């Protein structure tokens, strides 16, 4: 009987997947930190779009 972890070590993840994941984390961090300072008036739509997600992650926005 093999453990599930042994099956995961056989999976090869391409290097570009790590780059895409890092880019996604950076964009997520920037969106979470946006409170209208960087984007100005256009941030209202962005703020409302991600509002519930921000609160779910514990990011203060008010």
Q: From the helix content, strand content and strand pairing, which structural class follows?
A: mainly alpha
Q: What's the quaternary structure here? A: single chain
Order of helices and strands: HHH
Roughly what is the average pLDDT, rounded to an integer?
Answer: 77
| Cα shape | elongated
Q: Quick one: how many beta strands?
A: 0
Main sheet properties: none
Radius of gyration: 18 Å
Strand content: under 5%
Helix segment count?
Answer: 3
> How much helix is in the residues?
55-70%
End-to-end C-alpha gap: 53 Å
Question: In a nutshell, what does this entry contain?
Answer:
Pfam families: CbtB. This protein is an all-alpha fold and 62 residues long.
